[in-house]
Every structure is written in C-alpha cells, then in structure tokens.
Amino acid sequence: xxxLQIYSVIPKLPTAxxxxxxxxxxVWYDWKHEIWDFFSQIDHALWQECQNNPVLFLNRLPQPxxxxxxxxxxxxxxxxxxxxxxxxxxxxxxxxxxxxxxxTGQPVVAYFSAEYGLSHSIPIYSGGLGILAGDHLKSAxxxxxxxxxxxxxxxxxxxxxxLTPDGWQQERYPVNxxxxxxxxxxxxxxxxxxxxxxxxxxxSLAARVWRINVGRIALYLLDANTxxxxxxxxxxxxxxxxxxDEMRLQQEILLGIGGIRLLRQLDLSPDVxxxxxxxSAFAGLERIRDLMRDKGLPFEAAKEVVASSxxxxxxxxxxxxxxxxAPPMIREYFQSYSQELRLSHEAFLGLGRENPSDEHETFCMxxxxxxxxxxxxxVSKRHGEVSRTMWRRNWPQYPVEDVPxxxxxxxxxxSSWVSRDFALLFDRYLGSNWREDPDCDRLWRQGEAIPDTExxxxxxxxxxxxxxxxRERLKQQxxxxxxxxxxxxxxxxxxxxxxxxxxxxxxxxxxxxxxxLFRDTQRLIALLNDTEQPIQLIFSGKAHPRDNEGKRLIxxxxxxxxxxxxxxxxxxxxxxxxxxxxxxxxxxxxxxxTPRPPLEACGTSGMKAAANGVLVASTLDGWWGEAYKSDNxxxxxxxxxxxxxxxxxxxxxxxxxxxxxxxxDIIPLFYDRGKGNIPREWIxxxxxxxxELVPRFNAHRMVEEYAKFAYQPAHTNxxxxxxxxxxAARNLASWRLSVAEKWGSLSLRNVRAAxxxxxxxxxxxxxxxxxxxxxxxxxxxRVEIYAGPLNPEGxxxxxxxxxxxxxxxxxxxxHLYKGTTKPAESGxxxxxxxxxxxxxxxxxxxAVGLIRWAVQGK
Length: 858
Ligand SMILES: *Cc1c(COP(=O)(O)O)cnc(C)c1O
Hints:
Number of strands: 27
Catalytic activity: [(1->4)-alpha-D-glucosyl](n) + phosphate = [(1->4)-alpha-D-glucosyl](n-1) + alpha-D-glucose 1-phosphate
Radius of gyration: 29 Å
Oligomer: single chain
Largest sheet: 10 strands, mixed
CATH architecture of the largest domain: 3-Layer(aba) Sandwich
Family: Belongs to the glycogen phosphorylase family.
Bound molecules: pyridoxal-5'-phosphate
CATH superfamily of the largest domain: Glycogen Phosphorylase B
Helix content: 25-40%
Shape: globular
Keywords: Allosteric enzyme, Glycosyltransferase, Pyridoxal phosphate, Transferase
Organism: Desulfohalobium retbaense (strain ATCC 49708 / DSM 5692 / JCM 16813 / HR100)
GO molecular function: glycogen phosphorylase activity; pyridoxal phosphate binding
Distance between the termini: 88 Å
Number of domains: 4
C-alpha cells in the first residue's frame, strides 16, 4: 500500500533548546570537541547509535528528554555558552590578510571537488582526495579565507564494505537520507527548491542544491535526484565514482558546468576557481562561455582571463588514473556547447589533448585543466617532479624542470585529527593557540616540556580505547558474518594494550601494497607470537569493487587473522572510514605505509598519526620523502624511494626491509624500558614528531600556501585583466596570437663566450648572442643563458638561468644581447641560450608555452 501523503515529523524543540539546531547544522561540531562532547553527554548511547550525526540525534531524542533538558538550568547555561562560541567564531571580523582589500563578505575563491570527507556520518567521500578537500575547507574556515565549496550530493555515497564468512568483500550502498544529515535544501526566495540546469546531450538536466555549513564556509552540493528529471537521470548522482564512462562524464558536466551556474544563481562571483583534481575542469569552459556571452569577449581573451585566475591541483601520478573520454562521446555531449564557444569540434577536442592535432587522442580532463589554469601543482615535492615529467608533452621543447607545474605539499587539519587527550596535553603545554596557529614552530617546540610519563600515559590510554573499539567492532562484524555469538565472544580476547601495535588503514589499491608484511608469513607469525617482545597488527581498508586482486588480499589477511596462530594479534576491521581512521591513528604505536614509489602522490594518514605521537614507518614516497630524517629520529624509511625496473623484485626487497626494521630497530626500541617502565627513546621520537612534523604538515600551512602562491596572484590577475571592461584581456590575447604567429621566424645566431677552456668557480663568463625578433620589440621577449653542471653524457644536471640584455640594434631586425653566467661549483659546466616570450600581464613566461633554443653551429 502506498501512503497518500508524506510528512517529515520533527521533534518540538523547546525554545530554550533552539540553539541546538544551529550547532547541529554546522560541521564545526566535527572539530570543536566541546560541541561533540556536549551532544554525546545528552545521551551517549543514542549519539553512538546515530553515528555522531547531530541532526539525526536531535530528531530521535525523545520528547520527554527534551522537556527535561529545557528545565535544567545548568544544561541551558552550557548550551548558551557553546552557542555563543559558535556565534563568535562565525562573526569574527578578522578576514584573512591575503584578501584584506574590500570586506564584501563575498567569496573570492570557489573550490571544486568531486568528494568531501567532512565527518564520518556524511558519507560523500571515498578516500584521501575527499578527506583532503574536507580538511581544506576546515582550515579555510579557521583562517577566515573567503572561499565557497562546490561538490555533488551522492544519494548512496561510496560503498560500505562487509565480508562474507570466507572473507570476500561485499559492497552495499545504504541510502543517505539528506533530510537527516546536517545539510539543508537551498530554496529560492519563493520557497521552492533552487534548481540548476545543465545540458546533457539534447536534454536539460536539473539539480537541486544542498548546503552544508563547514564552520564559516558554505559548501554547496548538486543533487540530480529531483522529480524534474526523468528516472534514468535521477540516478546520476547516486554513487561516488559509480557507473561507466558516460555516467562519469555526466557527473563531471554537472559538477563543473553546474557548479559555475549555481554560483551565478546564488549571486556569488568568486574571481578565482580552484579545481581539486581534473573532475571539475569543465568549470573553466563555463566561465569562458559566460565571459563571451556577457562581456562579448572572443574565446581567446576569455580563456586568458579564466586561465590566469584558475588553480589546478593534480593528484594522480598514474596515467591511467586520469579521466579520459572517447572523442565521439565528447562530440555528442558538447556539440552545441562548442558552438557557443565558437570552436570547431577539433579545436574543442584539442583543449583536452596533449597533442591537439592528434585526432586519435582521447579527451583528458587533466589536460583540459592544465590548459585552463595557470597555477598548476602536484601535492608533494616528488609528485611535482613526477607530474612535470608526466605532462611534459603539453609543453613541447621544454626542459622538464620548466614545465609549469609546481608543488604544494598536502597537510591535515590538526584539530580534526588529534585525539581529545592529546588536545588537552597541547592546551596545557603549548597554550590554546595551537588550534588557530598550528603552523607556528615556536609553539610546537614547547612540546619538549610535556613530561615523558604524562605523554606515555596519555598514549596508553588511547591505545586502550583503541583496543576496546576494535573488540567491539570485531564482535559486531563476526556476529553479522557468522551469526554465531560464541565466535563473536572470542573478539573480546584479541589484542593487548601492552603490545607494540602497528596500524595500517587505507584503500586496498594494488600500489599501496597492503601485502608487503605478509610476504613471509612464518617470519610474521614469529614476530606476532614472540614471548618477550610480540607485535600486533590492525588492518583496515576497502578494495575497489572491481579489483579482485585487492579483494583476494583482504581475504588472505582475514584468513590469517582467524588462524589459531594469529587470532590474538591480527585483526582486520571492515568498512574503513573516518571513524576507524581516527581510532587507529590515535591509538597505534606505529603507522605503516608501503606504497610503491613514486605512486603515492602525497599520502596524508601518516601526518595524522604524527599529530598523535604515532611513529611512521613508510616507503620514501610522497610527503615522507620530504619529512624523513636519515637518523630515524622522526620515524623509519622502508627503502630509499628508488623505482625498480622489476616491481616484483622491489616488493620482495622492501618486504625484507620491513622485517629487518621491525626485528632490529622498531621492536627493540619499543621494548627498551628504562626508569618507570617507559620507553624513553621512543617517547623522545614521539615528541620530535610533534615538534617537527606537525608545524609543517598541517592544512593551515597548506591553505596559506595556496592563498599566497596561487589564490592571491590569481585574484590580482583577474583584476588586471578585467580592468577597462576586459580591454587588458583582449590585448593580452592578441599579443599572444601575434607572438605565436611570429615565433617560428625568430632565430638565434653567433652565440659566443670568451675562448677559454678553464674558468674558476664564481668567475663570470660573458656570453653574447644575436637574436632576430621579426619586428617584436626587445621588451616582448626574454633572452636567457641556461647554464649548469653537466653529467658525463654532457647533459645538464641542474641549471640556472640568467637574463641577457639587448645592447645594440644590428641591421635587418637583429639585436645583440649580452649577459653573464657564473659556475657555482667545480667540474664540467656548460651553457646554452634560449628565447621566451615576455608580457607583463602574462606573469610566468612559461605559461605562454613558447620557447626557442640556440642551435649548434649557427
Ligand atoms: C587520511 C585518510 C585517507 C588518506 O590516507 P592516505 O595515507 O593518503 O592513504 C583515506 N581514508 C581515510 C578514512 C582517511 O582518514
């Protein structure tokens, strides 16, 4: 039987308790421990049952409890206090210094991401990328950066994992009831749901919009599940990374194009957009279309404006991981759209191709993003290098180090990931500013003052909590799997808080190599069961639904964990998510990370571990490559970050290294107990991690870097290019076209230096060259000496560049240039000369993508 009418019944919150709604509808509760605890103290069991979702929790509190609370003056006073702190947080006037110009209250930056990890009860994330986006918003909020977030509202989110009795991963997709989550439907002024429309083939797709308050930041999520759409389109935003290519393309159209349309409909006009991964790259096209239509700009000029004010962060060091679409599909979807951009189909497709004239090349979202953004970055130093190499075809003739992709190393939002107990320690010994100012070195240096015993006791308490948590979870999962309560009871015997505990939690992607520790099971079993100095392991993670290899790996670990030899000391926890991550990262002794270099773009879980005094043992990849110290004082490295030709062999070697590290270093250090039966040296390293890693690898530092090196200059660019009704942009575009036209005829000859074969370190070498400019003025080019030490093959190992200046006009459009270069070290040294275009508003000369090198013998 179908109901005739449906209502949402909500509790009648007494007036005195009304502020509870405001607390519940702001994700601030996720990192403001007082609010979380306040909810929990109302009804701990219900708070757990509701998975710490405050909206569901309030909706389910019995009416008598509410009435009772309203009568409790202590409770009401405390509510008032907490509510006031939220209000103060939201209304503080200290806007981020980077944008202190006009305090309009308008966002300057729009941040686009396909997923967000904000809190474990809001399941619209799959892994690191989403958590990073969530942490970015949280830090932007704390820093009061004028930023707005854009994403998609997935009805089923990412899958939840459970295992069959024989350990095989199954996926389920529970429905997210948005009405019961801390998000609210955005309405028009007439009270109807606001709808955004985007074109999908000949049809128009409608999307409703949900708003989540992330502290001071508004995050808007587009949701295709609305009655205006035909049935088959309503499922478009059903799953995160679900469906095939076509669904992916449609989702990305909604995210990118729909996101920009939404901002317009909300009357928001951020100057800068930040694409967190290529999924949202269509946003750039939509901005171009707007500028063409509203300002009458030609495509090229609009593209200059958009690219100069766009920031793109790439996260995927594997070519196959980057979204690519077949040209016919793009053609089908963007037929009329490319007409609006006044582009031929081939020109349109060229925007997503490394070689625009290769008509067989697929359309790649990363290439599109690179073409439509001037601020491109990878997420660790090493990943920056990997990305420059990976995408160098986009900048032909470029030396790899000049490919304009930089790096900003990821960070984590400290208050979100640090345990309450450690937060209290920090409050006591560092002062309460560590929350606002986690990137301040001076503050973390005070960590030295935390007494060893206090730090250790706190850690042990967290470890005990972890053990309790694991036993409880394990009990539930065994019960669900086997239905036999007796088996479930065994869960109460697993793990021992006194034993060295190693945690591993992440996606079971092949390159992460969760199996490295299981290569030699006998050796592992011996370590687990050592009578004097045993270890124990907690593993957790999801394999991609189509990744059978990953699933087999999980099965292998589960099987082993059920064997008599390992039962007490090895646990696999189902359904890895932010909640499990928090427990693990706060309560382990060692956090193990084993990606195969160079495939981990950054990795962030180890940073969360460090903030909780957990020591990291990791391959030298991603962030660990820049954090690790060779004296092991901050943790251990597994190998030296090399890339082997034979991955099988590499896995073997690195698994041997782990066993050795454990046997020779980690285990003895942990069990080396001095006075008071505590491991002094271990504790010293815990502190060192707090003092040296936390101030660097946190999201405040990361967001500040984006603000300083990308948002701020992008914002300035937008203003310069839009001045005089975008005349500056038109000028830049026509300059670029004319330079591109002439570039082929430019030329260099008679490149010369003083005839001597020996020079001293730091002795200047005078270089001169004649340059043919074909009517361009010397101000429109940069002539550079490109010099540096050479390897035995005669190739540059490193290079410096020095500018040459035009000293004389020769006949027929030739100019004489001179400059000096200085070798900084002894050894073989060489130089050449190159030519780059130069235009003040184009900022980075490499952004134009044109270059010309001196040719030998001319
Ligand atoms: C931090 C985190 C990640 C990312 O961790 P990596 O080290 O980058 O693999 C993934 N999932 C969850 C739940 C996390 O908290």
